[in-house]
Amino acid sequence: MTKTSKFTPWDEDTGDTTTTANNTSYILSKKPLGDGSYSVVFECKNTSTGRHYAAKKYNKRLMYGFENMLKNEFKVLNRISLSHSHLLSLIDYFETEESFYLVTDLARGGDLWNKIADEGKLNEQTTRTITKQLVESVDFLHKHQILHHDIKAENVFFQSKHQDSILLGDFGLAKILQPQEKFHEISGTLSYMAPEMLDRKIGYDFPVDVWAIGVCVYFMLCGYMPFDCDDDDETKDAIRNCKYLFEPSEYWVDISSEAKDFILACLRVDPQKRFTPSQLLQHSFLKTNLAKPTITISSPLKRSFSNLSALQRDQIKNILQKAGGLSAPALSHSSSINERLERGRFDSLNKDATLHGAICPSPECVSIFSSPANSTSVSRDGSAINMFEESLKWDGSQKKALPLNTLRHEASFVL
């Protein structure tokens, strides 16, 4: 391996990046999952473990002048990864001569926007289930001084097509705020912007995420946006003056007063009077007949803490005991052991399976690949053991996988 001095989003202290002559540890699908202004997302497979993830590919030429945006996304993702069950996690990262890659969780269920478009609108129970998860994830971010800054239906992903369990993603505009710090840049998606975001002089912080949650809930319940006028000027005026209605009445006749009041609590012009995520979690709308997200997993793949091996359980217990129990910050707002272990993080990466910023040859691209026999719809890099060890590390340090002596299944490819 050699060292090269150049810009990378993940090595800003020294500017040195590892260069490897070995093949990249990932194979990419030729068909993209989605794209943005600067990036394209592909499904990928780790060739060492057979695990499937999402690879967000940034074109270096398009990113010229926007390097800080990518640095910021990496910084936020690296800080929150494996800390909350409804936040997208960073698995790995590397670069080639032409591109940067961020490897993250793979959500096979599409996004909330497409779900609403397909179904017209969502029933109140489904909306409640999705909203509670969204508010919990935002509450976690805010308690760790992170402003998401781009909450919208397109950035709420489903772990699979057979469940309503979400992952909040796309942290390209996210910001780690210092106490009392305000953000002044006008950026984001206009239809989801809070009134204070339209005035550079005022500045804004965490309450803008709550406003965006309110817009999402309105959208889920009726199938159209509360602030979506003929042109941008009209939309801005509607936002500044909170001009929206629960109309046409036939769309809202079966919607409860609790749901409408929840939206009102989010869409308050004065950010100081807007509910916080913690207050929203106590709102009657989220307390009424809340069902757990539906999860459909075939019986050969379904696992839980109860059927882990004795060795795995002992190792988990040892890690937790060394860390002083479950009171560490990264786990303070996370879900239970069973819920976390059912999310598909059972096969550890071996010591050579992660690249951690290495400069590599371009990944091979294939037309079709099949999931390994032991892969669930959403993939994480760590084993059950490594997951807890890394979750307890809030300092964003590099991941060190602890491999288990478990059977591995290779995926077959059709070129």
Describe this structure in words.
The radius of gyration is 22 Å and the shape is globular. A six-stranded mixed sheet has the order 6-7-5-4-3-12. Strands 1-2 form a two-stranded antiparallel sheet. Residues 1-5, 13-17, 295-313, 322-349 and 371-415 have low confidence and may be disordered. With 415 residues, it is an alpha+beta fold. The chain has two domains: 2-107 and 309-414, 2-Layer Sandwich (Phosphorylase Kinase, domain 1); 112-287, Orthogonal Bundle (Transferase(Phosphotransferase), domain 1), CATH 1.10.510.10. 29% of the residues lie in helices and 15% in strands. It contains 13 helices and 14 strands. Helix 4 (124-143) runs antiparallel to helix 5 (207-222) and helix 5 packs antiparallel against helix 8 (257-266). ATP binds at residue 57.
What are the key terms here?
15% strand, 2 domains, disordered C terminus, two-stranded antiparallel sheet, Prot_kinase_dom, Transferase(Phosphotransferase), domain 1, Phosphorylase Kinase, domain 1, alpha+beta, Calcium/calmodulin-dependent protein kinase II, putative
